[in-house]
Structures are given as structure tokens and as C-alpha cells.
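Comment thread on ticket #2218

A.B. wrote:
> Attaching the input chain for the structure job we discussed in standup.
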Amino acid sequence: YIREAINRDLCAYDPYITFRPKKGKDKDPVYLEEHELEALKNYDLSEETDSESLTRVKDLFVFQCFTGLSYVDLMSFNKEEIGEIEGYKVIKSNRTKTEQGFISVLLPDAIEILEKYNYELPRISNQKYNAYLKLVALYVKDEETKQPIIKKKLTTHVARHTFGTYLVNKGVPYETVARTMGHTNT
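C.D. wrote:
> Ran it. Output below, let me know if you need it in another format.
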């Protein structure tokens, strides 16, 4: 609109030419620590609620934590992306966002979830998924104190951060972690 105003002689120059917005500060990534992930993974939501949706969301989130898949890649995941390399089951695909190829070893926890759903993961909208994740976090409580174990706001991206942090803590080189997660650079 500014360029059009200049072209029509309604404005002599672009008043925003010297404007530079302040760059926002990066927030520290949120991820689950191993004890939080274990508590979530092992928590039986059926004792707290009869909502199968919450159990499916919990399973999807745990699957993301052990594969590093983004929400969009999770929702487009299909059985054909699973291959085998040196005796290990792997997901071999491209990130939807960057078109960057990646290979991720399917850890036993991820395979267990795939088998539970016969390799057809449930589908859910991103909005519903994130809303249900907040509820899931509230239900996962310490058996003795009855206090929530996870005090972080769970989102689909927390799962990716959890996966990356898990790999780094296990001594996997940053370059390998970046490649596994489909990042274009380290």
C-alpha cells in the first residue's frame, strides 16, 4: 500500500524505510526429562478417565518423543515409510516443512505404539491435539502425593525437543541429531 501511495503521489517516500523492529528473544526449548517421559509413557489414563481420545493423544505424543516427527509428519506417517537398515527398523522419509530427508531408528517404545494401532496411527487436528495434551499432563500424577508430575505446557513441539534432547544426552553427535530430525543445518 505504501508503494501504491508513492506511485499515486499521495506519499513522497516510504515512512517505514528506516524502521527496524526489535528482534524477539529466543525462548529456551521445552522438553521432558527422562523421568517425566517415563511417567507419561507408563501412566494408565483409563483409571482416571474413560476418554479413549486422551489415551490416543498420549500415545501419539510418546511416539513423537521417540521418533522426533513433527505434527505434520506424524499426521502423514504411513507404514510404507518404515524400512530396515542393518537389522533395525527405521523411518525413512522427508520432512514436509523443509523437504529434507531423514532416517530415524524406530525405538522399541515407538514400535510398541505402532503395533498397538496396527501401523495406522490415529489422526487428530493440531488444535485438538494440543488441547488434549494439556489435559493429559494434568492427569499424570505422582501416586503418593497425587501432584502432577509434568508441570510443563505440553505441545507437539515439546515432543520433538524431547527427542532431540534425549539423543544428545545419550551421546549422539549434534550433526546426527540434526539429520535425524530433518533439520537443514546443525
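A.B. wrote:
> Thanks. Noting for the ticket: The radius of gyration is 21 Å.
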